[in-house]
Structure formats: C-alpha cells, structure tokens
Amino acid sequence: MLQANQNIKSMGRTELAQCYFPHVLPQTAWQKLRSLLNEDPSLSHLTRLRRRTFLPAEVNIIYQHLGQP
Predict the structure, then answer these.
(1) What is the Cα–Cα distance from 58 to 27, expressed in whole angstroms?
(2) pLDDT, tens only, 10-32
(3) Fewer CB within 10 Å: C terminus or N terminus of the chain?
C-alpha cells in the first residue's frame, strides 16, 4: 500500500493508462484501463468524470486497487 508521504501527481487518463499498458496505442490503453475501472464497483465512478485528468487522490485510489504500474 502507498504511504501518505509519497508525492503522487495528477495524471491525464491516457497518461495513466499508458503506464499500465505501455505497449499499446494510447486510445487502446485508455479503453483497457476504463474496462478495469468499470469492473471494480468502487472505481467505476472514475470512468464517468467529465474531465480528462485524475486528481492525486484518485490516482492514489487507483494505485491502491490495481497496484502501481
């Protein structure tokens, strides 16, 4: 689990997706990450945001559920 003192920055959704899926096209990486997020009820709300970036707290939650890429 991540420690609170680690600096986690906000990330674009495609940027974060490419961290998890570095060997696919950016759009495909986002589709794969979105699919993973939708499978977890506690993360599915993150796919319906009207912005293209995740806040540091949201990135931290994703890391806690999916592990760091």
Answers:
(1) 20
(2) 999 999 999 999 999 999 999 99
(3) N
pTM above 0.90, yes or no: no
Inter-helix orientation angle 26-39/13-20, to 10°:
90
Residue 53 CA to residue 49 CA, distance in Å, equals 9
Phi and psi (nearest 5°) for 33? -65, -45
Give the contacts of 46 (CB within 8 A, at least 6 positions apart).
37, 54, 58, 61, 62
Q: How many angstroms separate the CA atoms of 29 and 39, rounded?
A: 16
